[in-house]
Structures are given as C-alpha cells and as structure tokens.
What does this fold into?
Amino acid sequence: MTDTPTADTKRPLGVALIGYAFMGGTHSQAWRTAHRVFDLPLEPEMRVICGRSPEGTREAASRLGWREWATDWREVIARDDVDLVDICTPGDSHAEIALAALAAGKHVLCEKPLANTLDEARDMAAAAAEAATRGVLASVGFNYRRVPALALAQRLVADGTLGDVRHIRAQYLQDWIVDPDFPLVWRLQKDKAGSGALGDLGAHIIDLAQFVSGQRLTGVSATTETFIKERPVAAQSSGLAASGGEASERGEVTVDDAAVFFGRTDGGALATFEATRFATGRKNAMRLEVNGSAGSLYFDFESMNELHVYDGTVPAAQAGFRRIYVTEPDHPYLDGWWPPGHGLGYEHTFTHQVADLVRDVAARRQPTPSFSEGLAVQQVLDAVTRSAEKSSCWTEVAG
Ligand code: SOE
It folds into this structure.
C-alpha cells in the first residue's frame, strides 16, 4: 500500500529555540503540535534548543522534545540545518540575537516586547526590513492576536460592524507579586526586562488595541507605580514561580509594578489602559472593550472562548450584549480543532502563532505582527515611560 504524501514527506523547516523557561515551554509545545493540528506546507523540525545552563538546557531538550541542545546561541545561528530562530530569552538579549540571526539569513520569531529600548527596536525593525529584501522574514510574538475570539473581534471591527470606534478600554490584570516576599526575579529588574508590568502586560494590550481597532495611538498621558520597592534576592527562576525566599538580603525593584495611561488614536478614538501585577484575585484578566457608533464588543481572557457583542442597531427593547461562544469551525483557527463547544486554552494561541508563521515562511510572505508593528508598540511604551517621568504630561508617540 502506498501512503499519500503526509507531513513526513513535506519540506522540513529547521527550528532553533533560544531560551527554555516559561515562554520556551509554550513555544516548544507549539512547534511540537502545530503541524499535527493544521495542514502546514512545511514540517517544523525541532533541531536544537539553546540556554545558558548545560544541565537545564539538556533537561529541557528532553522534556520539551528538541533533538539537540547547546549553550552558545552564536553556534546555533551558524548551523546550516537551522532555518528559523525562535527567541524566548529575557528582553535584554532580543536585539543582539535577532540582529545576528537575520544577518545570518535565518527567519526570526521574537517574543514580546520586541526589545528593551526604543533604539534597539528601531534597529531590529530596520534589520528586518532589509532582511525581507533577501526573503528572510521576522515576526514578534504577540500571541493574544491568535486568540480566536480576539481574531474575530478584529474582523468585526474591520467589517464595520461596530461603526466608528470611539472608545478602546484595555486592561491586563495579574496578581503574582502581591506578596512582598516574592523574590526579585528577572522580570522585576530593568536591566533584564526593560520595564515591569508596562512592557510585560501593557505591550500586549497596546498591540491588541491597535490590532483590533486598526488604529494607532498618537499620544498618551501615563502614570506608573512600584508598590514594593525591595524584594528578597533569590536564585533566578522562570520569572513567575515563587522560588527561593530564604535569602534575608533584599534588592531594589527597578521596574514598575503597575502602569495606568490613556491615549488618543489616529482614528479619533479615546483609549484607556491599565497593566498591573497587583490586581489581587485577577490571574490573567486580559480584557478589551471597544465601543463604536453602531455597537460594542467585550472580551476577557479568563473566559477566552467567549466574545460579547452588542448590536446598537437592534431596537432598544431587544438590545443587549450577545455572548458568542467562539468554538465553531467558521471561527478563526477553529477548523483544525475539536468539535464545537469544546474550547481552547492559552497554549493554543502559540500553536496558531507557529501555524501562521510557517504558512507565511512557505509563501515567502511577511508574517504579522512584523518587527515594524513591534516597533509601533515600543514607541507607545516609550511615550508612556516619558509621560510618567514628567508627572503624566501629555506625550506624543514618537514616529
Ligand atoms: C507574565 O506576566 C506573563 O507570562 C507574560 O510575560 C506573558 O506575556 C503573558 O502572556 C502572561 O503573563
């Protein structure tokens, strides 16, 4: 019996992953599964994972399904069998690795935020634009764009279902560092993370606000706060696990715990944002509401399979928010998954990210979000920081 061509006979895409903590895990899961869920034109091969610690990287390779492991990302980038480099390190190394990978002719997927500084993000966007002329592609990992309900929200706004967008209301609420004895992990250190809740969580909601509305922020007024100024110095962990805690020495928290800001968009909307790690009881409440002249929509990641839509053209007596359970095969990304009603989770957003990227690489098409879209988010982050430093003074987003 002859088998019909399967994924086994497809052209391989050699992938290298740099970093193996929380994001390394989510990305690995995506590389393992995307081509088994979706019919992709290339078959990703998980060739090598790279990290600083030999023991940690070896263990991660076997646990996460990578063929080989390495400790020097420069050697990894130089390998002929690596076509794509997936960067899941803290922000302080994104620029260096991405620039080297693009120069070496490797496609790049880089975790968000694109960089720690605006200058780095500018360099990365310029390098990606130049690489694209050589057929080398780059994308930044704003995975929430791949939540089916949010992809549907974007479609509804683009279709004009909501009319003219007047308000964008975005929140990203977590509470994992409410305990003052939670250790000083890398996400709380400016030299490694660039910023705190702002870059980690605010970057997502800025990107989503711009993605769903199709508009760009032009200026902001912002304030930030660091509630707990010192924390126990402890062994580094993935950044979220409350490891350590035995150390009596405390070190300075050099990033924001929370950022609150409002802005205006180039489409005439007013937008408000709240990003915090101090919303006690909120675990991953990434919420977005858009109000337009003809209707509204509302999303909360803690119920990620649902989108609530209000049709303002319905007579008042019958009007109300309608809950769409986003699990139908006609909904974005759902055709590859389970029968209607069974629902998806956080990890599937990364699977969708890989599926989209592999299709774009195969078609030699610019993947989204591009590095220039990552730069657009970085420009807003930079404006927020500058505004907060100037007592919330209105601050234009730099072009
Ligand atoms: C930690 O706050 C974190 O893992 C972010 O870094 C991710 O981007 C977000 O998806 C979940 O929370």
Observations:
- The two ends are 61 Å apart (CA to CA).
